[in-house]
Amino acid sequence: MKARSRWARWLPCALLAAGASLFACSGGSSGGASPGDGGGGDTGSGSHDAGAGDSSTGQGHDGGASGPDAGTDATSSGGDAGDAGIVDAGPDTALPGWTLTWSDEFDGPDGSAVDPTKWKHDVGGSGWGNQELEYYTDGTQNAVVQGGTLVITATTEGASQYSCWYGGCTYTSARLLTQGLFSQAYGRFEARVQMPTGKGLWPAVWMLGDDIGDAGWPACGEIDFMETIGTDIGENHGSLHAPNYNPTATYPLPDGGSFADGFHVFAIEWEPGTVRFYVDDTLYETQTKAAVPSGGTWEFDSEPFFLLANVAVGGQWPGSPDGTTTFPQTMKVDWVRVYQKDGTEP
Q1: Cα–chain-centroid distance for residue 340?
Q2: 129 or 28, which is more confident
């Protein structure tokens, strides 16, 4: 089965003004997303959940330039483009040829919330465009710093107190985003992650174009660099999503390995006209503007993108959990880092 976009493609929704819900959907629930096209890759991997949530959702940001011909980078804070920052997050973050511009090492006290200067929460149980079953909570209920990692937990515990599009909720989880806090055009974006497992689980670390409020989805662009489902936990999907252009490819762990058994580094290197996808520094996919088919558009130049991290439960791609799925399930994020290619202008 082909994965679905996390920003649903067929939404009977109207974009609202800033400060309200990103989308107001007829009938109180989101329409289904169409399958991802498999152009340029092995499997049609999913674009992310529609912003049919109950809170204002983050609008996208772009990454920083990589490659020998990398172009001008741009970062932004609070949505306005500005000078690219230089971050000192310790010697472990050094990467030859790159300058660290943003990171979260999740090194706060155990039990603390994520840094509010770096992350916001999406909140709600509207289905997020893919008929998902979770309610995304705020605070530390489902997203907490523990042992130097961000732990996002999908669980049944306490879910019935919330209302979802299908009635009383069955699951809770968390969805974090850097909208309005950080964005960058071009560069290397990477995260070290250990995934959950089980039917109905849909973990992801991904990106959206900062202009989503004006352009809408999919014209804002979407980049998914860590995405899988719990019944196929040994295979990562790397995808782009834009109007009439949804290429994807997959990276299977060697020897039948599982991404739930340990941490792995998922990354993209993005420059004008090119996005490269990596797992553990293995290049497995390259998408280029030159390869966009007739009728498609390339939405991955100039505009900054922002970051998101979430664990969805259910939805049209993974299906619903069943008797084989155990809860709670966690996605652990050791760090998220963004770099600018040395020699490029901020």
Answers
A1: 19
A2: 129
Separate counts of helices (H) and strands (E) for the chain: 1, 24
- On whether the CB atoms of residues 230 and 337 are closer than 8 A, the answer is no
- Nearest Cα to Cα of residue 202 among 340, 63, 18, 4: 4
Q: Which residues are catalytic?
A: 222, 227
Between 94 and 57, name the one with better pLDDT.
94
Whole-angstrom Cα distance, residue 318 to residue 327?
16
Q: What is the pLDDT of residue 346?
A: 54
Output phi, psi for 91, to 5 deg: -65, -25
What's the chain's Rg over C-alpha atoms? 18
Task: Give residue 8's pLDDT.
Answer: 43
User: C-alpha distances in angstroms, 309 versus 1, 81, 174?
Assistant: 23, 23, 8
Coil, helix or strand at residue 26: helix
Dist CA 332 CA 158 (whole Å): 21
Amino acid at 159: A
d(CA 37, CA 196): 26
| Structure-token pair, residue 69 | 């011909």
Cα separation, 296 vs 299, in Å, equals 10
Tell me the per-residue pLDDT of 247-280, one tens digit each, with 9 for 90 and over: 999 999 999 999 999 999 999 999 999 999 999 9
DSSP helix/strand/coil, 160:
helix
Cβ neighbours of residue 289 closer than 8 Å, sequence gap 6 or more? 272, 273, 274, 298, 300, 301
Q: Report the C-alpha gap between 41 and 45 in whole angstroms.
A: 9
63 near 207, Cβ under 8 Å? yes
